Amino acid sequence: MLLRRQRKQDALQGTLDLLVLTTLSRGPHHGYGIAADIQSISGDVLRVEEGSLYPALHRMEHLGWITAAWKTTTNKRRARIYTLTRAGQKRLEAEQAQWDRLTKAVGKILRFA
Amino acid sequence: MGWVQRLRNTFSGLEHDFDEERRFHLDERTDEYVRSGMGHVEARRAALRLFGNATLVTEQTRDVDLFRWIDDLGRDTRYALRMLRRSPGFSLLAILCLTLGIGANAAVFSWIEGILLRPFPLVVDQNRLFAVTGSNRAFSGNTDVSWPDWLDLQRNSRLVEAFIGEKITGSPLTIGDRSERVSGSMVSANYFDAIGVRPMLGRGFEPGEDVGRNAHPVTVISYQMWQGRFHGDSDIIGKTQVLSGLPHTIVGVAPEGFYGTFVGYAFQFWVPASMQTQFDAGVYKLEDRSARWIEGFVRLKPGVTIEQAQAELSAIAARLEADYPETNRGRGVKLFPLWQTPFNNAGALLPTLSIALVVVLSVLLIACANVGNLLLVRAFARQQEMTIRLSVGAGRSRLVKQLMTEGLILSAIAAVGGLVVANWLRDAVGLLTPPRGGVLLRLPGTLDWRVLALSAGVCIFSTLLFGLVPAMLTSNIDLAGALRSQSGSVVGARSRAWVRSTLVLVQMSLSFVLLVGAGLLIESLQAVRSASPGFSTQDVLTTGVDLYTSGYDSQRAKNFQDELIDRLQAIGGVQSAAFSRMTPFSYRSYSTAAIAVDGYDAPRDQQPTADYNEIGPEFLATMGIPLVSGREFTRADSETAPLVAVVDETMAAQFWRGMDPVGRRVQVKGRWMQVVGVAHNVKYRNLFETPKPFFYVPLRQNFSPTTALQLRTTQGPAVFAPSLVREIHALDANVAPSELITMREQVDRTTAAQRISVTILVVFGGLAVVLAAIGLYGVMASTVSQSSRELALRMALGARASDLLRLVLSKGLALTAVGFVLGLVAALQTTRLLGYLLYQVSPRDPVAFGSAFGVLVVASFVACAVPAWRATRTDPLRALRG
To answer: How many Å apart are CA B380 and CA A44, to the nearest integer?
Structure first.
């Protein structure tokens, strides 16, 4: 059920996790901020849909990679701030290594072709 | 993050969190758009659009792992409880149906557990216990095992961990000035160690205490006896208690909740097997290989199968057969699982309880069909709700889960109620079993964790059964179609009507089968009640007079018996009176002897044997057993006169092949006796036995001081009892007769299994019909209310009320008719499974089938009449306008 629904919407589920974890590795942030960061840092190339972001955040929270807490932001709004945990840090390193391997491999093939 | 945190998240109202989080997100996005120059309203709308389907995201955000499932369950449960409270009529009816179904099942499970599967509380490793009987190649059926054979089996077996030998016995117990009988057991010395029961006070028996003739008068008494008779005396060990006329030293008190190892009775005392002579009125059997009296159990070593053990014991029995041909020719041993134990009430109740199981499963099916029907009706009413939930983004599987949760809550509540019902019914089998004198009966249901687990299984199974079909139909709603039509006719209604009719058909046919079964058993019980065992059951009273335990020697006992007969026959209204060692249909066993007849050669591998009764003068006349030829015994057939015997017709036919045996001789245990008469065949042990050779010998020539007393008189037992006690006390104030009952009563006590199954089947058969009628009523009522427009149209076009009545009735009765045909086919196939419970009734008896049909027709007529009547009251104007 879960898999089927999300595969349809986001083929690169692992990539989203990687992006979110990387963003959070630079410091705690709320959902909107994470989405905005990814968009701006990628120079508007990557756009994270809300429909994918929040399920991913809550899933990672349940898996223990990130924790969440309600805090008041500078503009006096209550926001749910996500923080990377040690488990999340480890996960991030694993995902990064995986990603590096993947891009290297893809690069090789592209050069070879 | 730990599990605790995750669980807390699950229950902390995550949805509420997410709403707030979403609001924050939208606010930020709106701000961003406003900064880029949009108007506020426009920016908000754009942000919302970008966010997409809020419900779906909510669902998915929560759809993160297993914990969501728990969360859903809590949410569904709350919702389901709300829905059930909103339609209390529906909920109550559904819960009532299921409570009856689940309760009946749990009750029968508890009986099977407590009576058949684990019948002996406190006894360890009952799964490795098996019952042992002897077998005889000459006829089917089982015998007991002799003590020497038992010891030889024990010595030679390597697969059996323990041989637990025992024999039910009894003793009179005086309480004040009256005497009552308590049951107990003679056991091998290893008994308490082997079954793993430690006496709470004192000790069990020690090795060697089962050796020697009357050598060890020691006893372990039951907890109840300790409490009831000795008021919990803590210094009880070492005191004495007279049992069967001899003081026994109390060496132990059995723990509370231990009742011995005999299904049906709660034993009050145990003595070692060495005391057998004392309890068998002076007959010494410990060294007699032809005296078969041990009814025992074996505990197999771990990992040994019953087949392996059977093979080993049969091999040992074959060696014994070769070593002791004169006593063991044709004899073997046979193992049975506990639930098939032939020598206690397990074997007698096995068919009854199997039938009960089938019956309650059918009742459960019928109840499930009813609840399924109710749910379908409600699913119809909730079509709108489901359609809306689907169209705002609920997953179909969520809807199914929601409906299943509702079903599960229904059956969980019903299961709790069912267990209460089962708890009430726990002792029903015991209560339906007729009492025997002062003997404590014990046929309990056990509600242990296995029964609870099984009941929970039944609960889930029935939920799937009644809940899944409506849930599937509901989740298959065609959204577009359902939304277009305002109400009423909805796509899927046709398939639903079909499903509902099928459910009613199943109910009808199942109830028909149960009704036929109930009818057959009622007829069988009537046949049993009116069956003649061959002797008079009217005007004959029977009781027991135990002179042995009162300390009489043979000569005094003979004088007492003669004087008592004279005194009793002098009472007005007493036609005759006679002693015998056994009264027919007693739970005790007849004597058995190897016999030989001049000119009769038995097959080489068989030793002819026959049971016999030791009877006084005029016994046959008193019992109303006619003589075919010759005479019965008189006082002249005394111990000094020539030995004589009376044989029955079966024995005459088998050993003298049609010639009159009167004047010929028969050898019994090595003694030749002259046959002086041939008695009519009667039933000796129960109504269902097949004829086997049987004969009588004079009590005087084969004396026993422990006897039954039969009286032919028109007075009832209550009226006659004081005269009997007066005459006995005139001879000896210390002798007390046992319970005085009619022979009818004596015979009826052996038909308890029939009565129990009839009661169960009639009660549950009636329940099934009522449930099925409710089901039919439900279908017909909703058919009528759904087709009110059609009915109104017919009325407007000139149909009369009687036409509409006929229309609805014929529709309902058509369902009954099809159900009847299906049930007929099923019943013709299944009723022969009633087996020995059907006494002189054909399993295809037309009366039973006919009356079942009648009951079904009447019930469905009643169920259809109300909706049909309502159809005739249709107001065409209102129905058509609405």
So the answer is: 51
Alpha-helix residue ranges (DSSP H) falling in B129-241: 147-156, 191-195, 223-230
| Shortest alpha-carbon distance between residue A113 and chain B (Å) | 40
pLDDT in tens, B816-826: 888 889 999 98
Dihedral angle sign, alpha carbons of residues B358, B362, B367, B368: positive
Which residue is it, tokens 């809300």?
A50
For residue A54, list chain B residues with Cβ-Cβ distance below 8 A.
Answer: 18, 21-22, 57, 60-61
**Rounded alpha-carbon distances, angstroms, from residue B170 to A19, B460, B658, B738:** 86, 47, 42, 12
For chain A, the helix, strand and coil percentages under 3-state DSSP, each to the nearest 5: 65, 15, 20
CB B674 within 8 A of CB B641: no
Q: Cβ–Cβ of A55/B60 closer than 8 Å?
A: yes
Mention every residue, 6+ apart, whose C-beta is less than 8 A from residue A80: A30, A31, A68, A69, A70, B17, B20, B21, B24
Question: Measured between alpha carbons, how far is B133 from B347 in angstroms, rounded to an integer?
Answer: 13
Q: Confirm if B646 and B630 have CB atoms less than 8 A apart.
A: yes
Q: Per mean pLDDT, which range of B23-37, B54-68, B847-861 is the poorest?
A: B54-68
Q: Please state the domain count of chain A.
A: 1
For residue A49, give the chain B residue with the closest CA: B51
pLDDT tens track for B491-517: 345 556 777 788 888 888 888 888 888
Query: Cβ of A104: how many Cβ atoms within 10 Å?
Result: 10
Q: Is B680 on the interface with A (CB under 8 A)?
A: no
Q: What is the CATH number of the domain that holds A55?
A: 1.10.10.10
Question: Chain B residues with CB inside 8 Å of A91's CB?
Answer: none
H/E element, B135:
strand B129-136
B759-B763-B766 Cα angle (round to 5): 140
Check B27 against A77: CB less than 8 A apart: yes
What is the residue whose two structure tokens read 């139909």? B473
**What does pTM read for this prediction?**
0.73
Closest chain A residue to B59 measured between Cα atoms? A55
**Alpha-carbon span B595 to B609, nearest angstrom:** 5
pLDDT confidence of residue B477: 63
> What's phi and psi for B121, nearest 5 deg?
-60, 145
Residue B840 has a CB neighbour count (10 Å cut-off) of 12
Q: Report whether B595 contacts B667 (CB < 8 A).
A: yes
* CA neighbor of B574 nearest in space, from B564, B560, B584: B564
Q: Which residues does B385 contact at the CB level (< 8 Å), separation at least 6?
A: none
Task: Please judge whether A80 and B17 are an interchain contact, meaning their C-beta atoms are less than 8 angstroms apart.
Answer: yes
What is the percentage of chain B residues whose pLDDT exceeds 90?
32
Spatial separation of the C-alpha atoms in residues B612 and B448, rounded to whole Å: 45
Distance CA B249, CA B244 (A): 13
Q: Which amino acid is at B12?
A: S
Q: Could you tell me the pLDDT band of residue A4, with boundaries at 50, 70 and 90?
A: very low
Q: How many helices (H) and strands (E) does chain B have?
A: 29, 27
Please give the residue range of the domain that contains residue A67: 2-112
Contact indicator for B678, B661 with CB cutoff of 8 Å: yes
- Cα–Cα distance, B581 to B282 (Å, whole number): 13
